[in-house]
Request: fold
Amino acid sequence: MKYLVILLFCACGSILGQQTPPPSPPNQPIELPEFIVTGKERVDIPAGSKSSPSKPASLKGALLDSLNDLEKQPMPTMSPDPLLRLQRTGLFYPGYATASFGQYLTPALSGGYVTTIGGYRLDAHADIEASDGHVTNASYSKIDVRGLSTYVAPEKFLVFGGSTTEADLRYRRRGYRLFAVDSAPDRSVGDLSASVFVDGKYEGYRFQTGASWSMIEMSTAAVSATDNVLSGHLAVDKRWKSMDLGGRLDVNVRSWNEQDYSFVEGSVYGRYSTDVYRVRGSAGIQSAAATRDVTYGGLLLQGVIDWFVNPTVTVTGSVRSGLRPYTLRQLLDENPYITDTSLVVDVAYDIVDLQGGVVVHPHVRLTATASLRVQQRDRHPIWTDAGGGLFNASYHRVTMLRLPAQLRWIVTGADVLTADIEFVSATVGEFDVMPYQPSIRAAIISDRTWSPTIASTVRLTYVGDRWADLANTVNLTGYLDLHASVRYNITPVWQAAVEARNILGSDIMLWNGYIERGLFVNASVLWRF
Reply:
């Protein structure tokens, strides 16, 4: 019996020893028995035994210092967003040609082309027009040819590196008749001019210089008169602290029918600007001669200020005193019927020219300006009748008060409205109102785009009454001039247009004895290439 108990105890120990395996050492993988599961029943497999995590070994100080540098490096900067690149939505055509034909047998041709050759940008333009005239002896012809060259010099040039040079060559000819008189003599005016202008910088100095030459020949069957002008100028300025300081020299050698009327001016000027205002001023000495053997000396004083009150309002003001010489070209452009024998080209003197104004732009679609100008000028040209359909320029002291105002309103993306009006009060010395000066001028222009292919322009102009003599006895009545045009883009390169002027048929007389055209209609075709 004793031996039987000992045998059972040993057997139980052996069975318990097989059911309880010895514990695995820490951080050792757990071995699971291999098994195969077959059948469709779901089998729940219990998770294996979890082992306690062990603490990782500590890092040494030298290793930590190598990973965490005591000198902090700055964060790398982010690359800036690229700027918006505006791209042309339409095609650019370097050349164009226009042909038109209107009433009174009035054909016209014009064209132009722009190209770049060897770093030079070349612009060419030409106009030619002729007409049989709206009344007897009112026929005329016009030619205008012009070439312009623009060149930006490379930086390798010592002084002119980076400067812009413009060269201009132009020829104009006008042929017409003095149809205010029965004899209606022919007159031709030829105008040839050439000029060069340079704008650049050198070692902190900004300079502008240029020279020009022109010759005007005005002739009839009996008389020929010539005007020659040779001029040059140089302006140099430099930035000093917060100001621009500089000087300018102008020299003009002029002769009309071999009579000298030269002009010389030397001045210094300065500019100063901040975010709130901008100031410009100049002072200098002047010398000018008239074609009647008289030379004047003068002192130039000029100042301009712009005050930016806020982003929508700008106030401007200016004052000037000094000589203001005239040229034959200015007089001829103002009045094509000037006399060609006894004409005197004199020198005006601004005793005071004071102007102030305000610009209001509350919205990108709306801009309005209004100003007041007071002038007292000595030797201002006054047009008087010289007989034979010609006008002479006499020079008097005038006092003028001007009140101009302008408005530009982009009503919609397809409608733009522009309007301007000016009230003028001008008196001449001991006389009353200045001849050929209306007391009011007004105009309103409407531009409308009806579709991508059709656009129109309508302009209504009003000019008030004017006197045609110093005694204020000959009156030229005011008039309304209604002008309309329609343009149709047949293709991107072809455009057709119809234009009508003086639709109301008003009696328009700019100069006494010379009546302008009544209703005038013409059609044109434009080709872009």
Notes: The longest helix spans residues 2-19.
